Amino acid sequence: MIPLPDQERRLGSLPWVALTIMLVYLLVLLAYQGQEQQQRRALLNWYQDTGLFSLEWANYLSWLRINGQSEKAATLTRKRQAGNEVAPFLDMAFNPRFEAENRERGSDYWSREEFRRWKDKRQEFRQRTRHLPRYFAGLIPSDPRPGRFLTWHFLHDGLMHWALCLLVLAPFAWPLEARLGKARSLVLWLLGGVAAGLGPVWLFPEHYDPVIGSSPVVSAWIGAFASLFGHQRIPFGYIHPRTRQAATFELPALILVPLWGLFPLYAFLRTDQGAVLLSAQLVGLAGGALLAQLIQDTGMQQQESDTEDEQQRAWARTMTQGWEALARFEFSDAEKLFLEARDYRPEDFDALSGLFLVRKVQPEGESFQATLREVLQRRPTDADEGRQREKLLHQLVREERVPALPEALQLEVARLRAR
């Protein structure tokens, strides 16, 4: 089951912007980030081999305690005693406040030679860090460089992280991109990333672990979806389990929004920066809702309205021609015209009725049986449509065409007429 756009469902209306960006994300993950774990391990080994780790470790624990973070110091100590060198390394080596403290007061507790060696190795460490994707392109709240507001959401923690973002985005992408158009969808994506990035920068200005992942940008799309569709009902497409035929039904658009809850759930269960990511996701959600209202084009909406009027006139003209062709027993021409009318209005029951009347002359044919299945499965939108369907089925029985149908269809016709 997947939500469908409120425009013509053709290949050109697929969410190509969202699909292309997610594909780019995947390529970045596989090609650019593919060796990040090995690179980080190599940097840790270098950090230890040069003596930086041992030189800073005792000072770092003391610095944490002095700054009221005794519990954190104890936790890092336990992790290192358990053989986990990575967590203490990431916490200590990338802490800008601790580095600034050492630059200011390092000569108080290190010898002149140690202090000089520490500054040299720290400079080299900065150079080596630039080769790590998340420290080169990720958003660091304590050091929010402008360019990183455009790049941070291109990085992910792994395939599971990327797949989650894709799966949550999927239900929203097609209807939203069809509503906004390709250019505005791209603008929403980029500005949504900028807006979402402001959350960690505002709320966690001392956080120095890079923020990455597209969940805050997808949150912006979810906010935009909720803002534009509100309480509207949108069509959902699915494959009927018994007939294996495509069918649709309508549900409120907002029924999809709770899918957003998977993002904070993942952030708190699978990462160490749940609150930071949640701030980006919440700001992205609110920012997307606001951006959608700002970038939607009233002129475009008027153009769409004009297009809908033209389609309405084309549909009415085609239907008239179809009924006239059917009255002249020009069944082939009538079928083409009714099919054309369905292209203008896929859910229209009048065009479906015309196809039913044209094709019933060959009840054993697959085309008629497919049309009959659609008539049987369709839920009437009002009493008139229900009466119209009943007339079609009654005419089918009266003309004794039911015996030519497969047994399953015969039973379905009988069951529906017995209601």
The radius of gyration over CA amounts to 31 Å
Unreliable sequence segments: none
Structural class: mainly alpha
User: How many β-strands, per DSSP?
Assistant: 3
Q: Terminal Cα separation, in Å?
A: 28 Å
What does this structure look like?
With 419 residues, the protein is mainly alpha-helical. The chain has 19 helices and 3 strands. It has a 3-stranded antiparallel beta sheet. The mean pLDDT is 88.
Helix and strand arrangement:
Elements: E1 2-3, H1 16-32, H2 36-49, H3 52-66, H4 70-81, H5 86-93, H6 96-109, H7 112-129, H8 133-137, H9 159-180, H10 182-203, H11 215-229, E2 233-239, E3 246-252, H12 262-270, H13 274-295, H14 298-327, H15 331-344, H16 349-359, H17 366-377, H18 383-398, H19 407-417
Antiparallel strand pairs: 1-2, 2-3
Helix pairs in contact: 1-9, 3-4, 9-10, 9-11, 10-11, 10-13, 11-13, 12-13, 14-15, 14-16, 15-16, 16-17, 16-18, 17-19
In short:
The protein has 419 residues and is mainly alpha-helical.
Name the descriptors:
single chain; 419 residues; mainly alpha; three-stranded antiparallel sheet; 19 helices; 3 strands; 68% helix
